[in-house]
Amino acid sequence: MTLAAITPGQAALLFFGGIIAGVVNAVAGGGSAITLPILTEITDATIANGTNRIAIMIGALASVSGYQQGDSVPWRRTLPLIPPAFVGAVTGAYLASQTSPGSMKKAFAIVLFIVAGSVLVKPSRWITQSERRLGQPWSSLLMFAIGLYGGFVQAGVGFFLLAGLVFGGGLDLVRANAAKMVLVASYTWVALLIFVLAGQVDFGLGLILAAGNSIGAYSSSRLAVRKGANWIRWFLIVAAVGAAIRMLLT
Questions:
Q1: CA 55 to CA 14: how far, in whole Å?
Q2: What is the pLDDT along the chain (250 residues), one digit of tens a residue?
């Protein structure tokens, strides 16, 4: 679809939906639960899944910029996790370009309820940085698995990255979110390339969505640095429960 073929109403829905999704993705996850339904009202589900990656990639870069300005990106802990997440995402994106992603939704909805319950019941583990972390082989395997899901369907991957970075990496929610966005940015470009080569990306729709997403992601990351981990905790609970309910109902 060309930009000229997009109606003003569709453009506005994409832009403002992108802003909201950018805010959600930068401090929690599940922004794709907002953008994918908008895209599927305009184009088919396969194109929507690929097109959504444009907004995810640009929004992730904007969010990393916001966290970096607040000196909150834990580069030393994050960089070793990029290769396994990258390999997982490439594998997942290839599988997604060949198959339907709907079969995993209910299982991951249950995991989201567990994440929300953990944040509510054991807040200290999420808001305080710790030196306890998984060893490199286990953390690499965990990031590969999360990257695989992220490359395959993307929706909700932020929650799983956060859980892995908090429990496996010992990060608080501010730094875990910053690391999460670095990881998302590091693998989404190649996932996007795979969808482009498969002819499953609409750049007209994607760029409008990305414009809103980058605004929301940057603003949200700057706010997260100022407000701190406890504020993110409550945002995360609401976002995780909302995303889980939506996955179960659709």
A1: 10
A2: 556 578 889 999 999 999 999 998 888 777 887 888 889 889 888 888 889 999 999 999 999 999 999 888 999 888 888 899 889 888 887 776 666 545 545 555 565 566 566 556 555 554 555 555 555 676 778 888 887 877 776 666 777 888 888 877 778 888 888 999 998 898 888 889 988 998 989 999 999 999 999 999 999 899 888 877 666 767 677 777 776 676 667 6
Note whether 203 and 54 are within 8 A (CB): yes
Residue 25 makes CB contacts below 8 A (sequence gap 6+) with 31, 32, 56, 59, 60, 63, 158, 181, 184, 213, 216, 217, 220
First CA to last CA distance, the chain = 26
Judged by DSSP in three states, 172 sits in coil
- Taking the complete model, does pTM exceed 0.70, yes or no? yes
DSSP letter for each residue of 29-60: S-THHHHHHHHHHHS-HHHHHHHHHHHHHHHH
Give CA angle at 64 (62, 65), nearest 5°. 65
What are the residue ranges spanned by the domains of the chain?
Answer: 8-249
Instruction: Collect all residues with Cβ–Cβ distance below 8 Å to 103 and sequence separation of at least 6.
Output: none
